[in-house]
Amino acid sequence: MSRMGTNNHNIIWRTLSYLSPYKKEFVFAGLLLVAATGIGFLQPLVIQEITDKGMMAQDISVLRRAVLALAILVLLGQVIEMAQTRLFVNVHNRTYSHIFLQTFRKLLGLKKSYFEDRNNAEILSCLQTDVSQVASITDRYTVMSISHVFRIASGIVGLLLISWKLTVIVLAMVPVKILLVRRFSKRQEKAIDNMIESNRDFSQWFGDNLEGIDEIKLWGLFESRDRVFREKLDGILRLQKGNAMIDAWNILLESLLEWSVTILLYLVGGLLICSGSLTIGAVFAFVSYSWYVTGPVSALLNLKMYFARILPSARRLFKFLGQETEQDGGKGKVKTQPPRLEFKDVTFAYNEKQPILKGASFRVEPGEKIAIIGRNGSGKSTILNLLLRFYAPDSGSITADGVPISQLALNEYRALFSVVSQEPYLFLGDITENVNLTGRASQERLKVALETSGMANYAERMPEGVKTQIGRNGARLSGGEKQKLAVARALLKDAPIVIFDEATSGFDVESDAYLHDVVVNRMAGKSVIMITHRYKNLEGMDRVYRLENGQVAII
Ligand SMILES: Nc1ncnc2c1ncn2[C@@H]1O[C@H](COP(=O)(O)OP(=O)(O)OP(=O)(O)O)[C@@H](O)[C@H]1O
User: Fold this and answer.
1) In the 8-state DSSP scheme, what is residue 53?
2) ipTM given for this complex
3) CB of 466 closer than 8 Å to CB of 459
4) Which DSSP helix (H) or strand (E) runs through 344?
5) Which of 343, 346, 378 maximizes ligand 1 atoms within 8 Å of its Cβ, making it the mutation to test the pocket?
6) pLDDT of residue 205
């Protein structure tokens, strides 16, 4: 078997493994199935009874009894149908939420680098498509295809009971259908693969436009964006059409095949009636049984088509689930809070061609306040990325109280830091919700944080004070207000190490001086790492480091 084939089988097995928690449900579904198959088996026999012994023999009492039996069978069949639908909707919903939760948890644990190449629209669109495609294996259609085996078996028994000659005609369709499915499923898998890739590309492009909506307006990019939109959409629609046509051809040929069988049956059946070998009722019952075989055989073989539709999404989803997550190295704990931090001979490059740190060494003693300065692009934020374990150094060591930080439990380690970045992310909601992120801080502490950061003064002037909705990523706040809010957030967290990464670049002169005073004089016992381009902010720092040519020097 080819490697591709083996891979596909692995993916199908892995997809099917999502069904394993529902053994009880499947046993119940199996019982319903047996009942439905029994009913299905009896119906043509009852119709044969109505036709031959009721209508043809003009026996009213047989007719009445048989019609009543048929009505009961139909009713029972519908009740079973309803029970099956309920069962499968439940199984489908549980599988869907299981896969989506698994994906969401994975997403939150992924490395920062994963998010650098993708935007939100693209991530959401891909995950939604893939999760719903993979969860569709629990659709009634797929699972019930198994029932077709029963139906086919009961159908064949019924056929053989009436005429083996006609049975051969019915079964002759199977190899033809196998050939058709083999041809179409390969094409369909390729078409779906192209389609999900185009959709991914489209979502990425679409999301990028929304992120850059101000630039589109300011630079008058409507026309060019409009043109690209039409091109991309045309491409997607073309692929959708191609895919729909593959489906349509499959259905058309399948229907032609089934009708050919039925027409042949009428012809040969008619001849057998004329020769007196079969009754009219028997031929009608035979035609009904033949539908038990032809339809389900098609449905069963179409499973290959069905998996061809799921495969590209399943492949992408499993690749996503296999992405590297952040390393949570261990259970180590720091001895002191704040711990002594030390970079020793650290080298690091985002890519091999451009080393950023080349043997950087520096330390932050517990309770010390240090500043790091350096030109744009010299690697200051990179140092923080390494310290916060968003990236790992290529060589050298970063330790907290002498323990390599990679050996500390990640959540506990990050809990040591309050970080205020230059462009903090603000969640949808009001000011309070954005400062009290965990929702667990008391009102008094919240008030102090808002006042100390200077945010309280600004919030007072807003329409609903601290309950004012700030919009998407703080769109209704000024740059300085956003940063103040982020400072309040960090103060409320009250972590032993506070990091300011050009955190006050948007502050006016008075606010900056005020916050600097808070940092220098009112953060006793806390370690502070400040990255700044403002020389005024270096006053009162215990030590100032300059980052140059990938190395750190004290100045
Ligand atoms: N995720 C990344 N992938 C690849 N290269 C990166 C990445 N982040 C930063 N860089 C590159 O690394 C270098 C250092 O970036 P860094 O953000 O650490 O500089 P910085 O000193 O903080 O600059 P600034 O003062 O402008 O904020 C830059 O040349 C930048 O292009």
Assistant:
1) I
2) 0.98
3) yes
4) strand 341-349
5) 378
6) 97
